Amino acid sequence: MSFYIDGYVLPVPKDKLDEYIEMAKMAGSVWKEYGALKVVEAVADDVQPGKVTSFPQSVQLKDNETVIFSYILYESREARDEINAKVMKDPRLADMKPDNMPFDGMRMFWGGFKPIVEL
User: Fold this and answer.
1) Helices and strands of the chain, counted as H and E runs
2) What is the pLDDT of residues 1-19, one digit of tens each?
């Protein structure tokens, strides 16, 4: 398989969803400009709390929040590392600090994934 995936999950207050979408569009366009193949942001639609674990439990979801599930697709792990290094230095994202984000970054989780099955 010839691609690599960064995935992340985070809680967003429902009243800040539009603000999050605008931020995600801007940031996603920066990732794409530097070479990401695809950027997908998705909001919870059919996501239920579980008995042991679930998307809501994973981010300690509050009543006024929704879950965002997102991923970025790259050609390879090496491409991802190069792209992310450029993105982190881009001045268009310089204002993105934990204290002015439309979500609680302390409850966000993410990671890089190497595909093992592709159909």
Assistant:
1) 3, 4
2) 689 999 999 999 999 999 9
Listed in sequence order, the DSSP H helices in 1-119 are: 17-33, 55-58, 77-89
> Which residues are within 8 A (CB) of 5 and not within 5 positions of it... i.e. 6 or more apart?
71, 72, 73, 74, 112, 113, 114, 115
- Which helix (H) or strand (E) segment is 69 a member of? strand 65-74
Q: Is 37 helix (H, G, I), strand (E, B) or coil?
A: coil
Rg from Cα positions in the chain: 15
Give CA–CA dist 42/24, Å, rounded: 10
Give the list of residues 6+ apart from residue 71 with CB closer than 8 angstroms, or none: 5, 6, 7, 8, 38, 39, 40
Distance CA 88, CA 61 (A): 28
Read off the pLDDT of residues 25-82 as tens digits, 9 standing for 90 and up: 999 999 999 999 999 999 999 999 899 999 999 999 999 999 999 999 999 999 999 9
